[in-house]
Specification:
11 strands, 3 domains, two-stranded antiparallel ribbon, five-stranded antiparallel beta sheet, alpha+beta, single chain, 468 residues
Length: 468
């Protein structure tokens, strides 16, 4: 059979880069609350919702990005050394192309790939714990499943996506729409319920025949009458604890969060054991994307960092972490946790374990505006995952002296020790003075003693004579 011929217009559209741009995703929505929320239109989103476009240098010189019209060089090539754009509107009312820079997510992806971090399933990290959470790859065969995966039939198989919605995360409008969908498909659901009831009766018959020592090959197929099926439905309606697992299995719904302790004594619809690949998904909902989000496809962190001089190392080269919010009070409120930025990702200090070797400093304890670019310190990333909302969660430990020594990194990070550490008695030496030669110490001591006299003489020379 000859292939269907395409018209010139259809062939042009198939090969056009313009029509290859995927549809934009839905922007992340904030949780409904009565408090006032200050939002910014220019803030970086937690995850990209539009594709990033690049063009060769030969086409960039002409402003050709494969779109309907060329883009101006003043906003693309002249503004950045690596121009990357995302199209907001292809053709506006003013006959222009609305676009913006896409370097925020693109550079963050490149920085993350330089960390050589495998993606893990999300897990809780205690602020006071000294043990790193266990790495579980989302690419394992018994975890990387959806509702249509053939691997669900294996024992102990988990999945990260169900065909039904997560009821705990739905609004009232969404729940009403889902209820109408269930009512519309009631005949099909009753047919599936009848098949599950027949399978249940068959399993009970096999179990009874096996206990009695009968031959299982001579068993006849189970036949369920309409009266028996209606009686089964009435028994489920009278017992919420038995109806809950049946409804979750019939509609393929993710397991609901745990029932509060004050509701245990009352009747409620119990959900079956979770089939989700991570326990965090039970409390916060299934992930909106794949648990890896396409950031990395490495399954383990079993890598050896071979130093050219000192040989294999237990830690990779530490990376710089910028202090975004120091410890202490923030906007008039007490905040004991600091927020740092690692590779363009905000890291909460609660994910950093408290076990720190001697030699690491508390650079994020105070805010020092005199440091160019902000205060920084060295960290070692250990775990990375994506939560249910598509946000990257990075867990890192402060780099110890052992991890920084082979690379010649200063043991005192980028900022001097705070005065509180010296008063507390953790360091018995004066900072910076011990790192200077003895000649410089004597010179600085003499200058500090003679400096008040110099200031006094300068003040007297600049004094204005009194007028009579």
């Amino acid at each position: 059979m000859a292939a269907a011929r395409l018209s010139p217009t259809a062939n042009l559209l198939r090969k056009s880069r313009l029509f290859a741009i995927p549809q934009a995703l839905t922007p992340p929505q904030e949780a409904p609350t009565s408090r006032a929320i200050a939002e910014s239109d220019t803030a970086t989103l937690p995850y990209p919702i539009r594709a990033s476009l690049v063009t060769p240098s030969s086409s960039l010189a002409r402003g050709d990005w494969g779109l309907k019209r060329p883009l101006p060089a003043k906003s693309t090539s002249d503004k950045s050394s690596r121009p990357i754009v995302r199209v907001l509107e292809l053709d506006t009312f003013e006959h222009t192309t609305d676009f913006e820079s896409a370097a925020d997510h693109t550079v963050t992806l490149e920085k993350f790939q330089e960390l050589h971090m495998p993606m893990s399933l999300p897990s809780k990290a205690s602020y006071a714990a000294s043990m790193v959470s266990k790495h579980v790859s989302p690419f394992e065969s018994h975890l990387d499943n959806t509702n249509t995966s053939p691997g669900l039939g294996e024992p102990g198989a988990k999945q990260f996506r169900h065909s039904g919605p997560w009821l705990a995360g739905q609004t009232e409008t969404e729940f009403q729409a889902f209820s109408k969908y269930v009512q519309k498909n009631k005949p099909e659901l009753l047919k599936k319920l009848r098949e599950s009831f027949v399978a249940k009766r068959t399993a009970e018959q096999w179990k009874q025949a096996q206990d009695n020592g009968e031959n299982l090959e001579n068993l006849e197929p189970v036949k369920v009458t309409d009266e028996e099926f209606q009686a089964y439905i009435k028994s489920l309606r009278a017992d919420p604890l038995a109806l809950g697992p049946v409804v979750f299995e019939l509609l393929d719904l993710p397991s609901a969060p745990a029932v509060p302790s004050n509701k245990i004594g009352t009747k409620y619809y119990q959900s079956p054991g979770t089939k989700l690949s991570a326990a965090e998904y039970t409390a916060f909902g299934p992930p909106k994307t794949h648990p890896s989000a396409g950031l990395s496809y490495t399954r383990s962190h079993a890598l050896i960092y071979n130093h050219p001089k000192y040989g294999p190392q237990a830690f990779q080269r530490p990376v710089e972490a910028r202090v975004l919010r120091p410890k202490g009070r923030f906007k008039g409120r007490s905040s004991g946790k600091a927020v740092t930025g690692v590779g363009g990702i905000a890291v909460d200090e609660s994910t950093m374990h408290t076990f720190i070797e001697k030699g690491s400093s508390a650079a994020n304890a105070v805010f020092d505006s005199s440091i160019p670019g902000g205060a920084k310190f060295w960290v070692n990333p250990v775990r990375s995952s994506v939560d249910s909302e598509g946000r990257i969660e990075l867990k890192a430990n402060r780099a110890s002296a052992t991890a920084k020594a082979p690379y010649g990194i200063d043991q005192n990070d980028f900022s001097p020790l705070s005065i509180s550490d010296i008063i507390r008695g953790d360091h018995r030496v004066v900072p910076k003075m011990d790192r200077q030669p003895s000649g410089d110490i004597a010179k600085n001591l003499i200058d500090s003693l003679t400096k008040p006299n110099k200031i006094r003489h300068a003040y007297k020379s600049r004094a204005v004579p009194r007028q009579s």
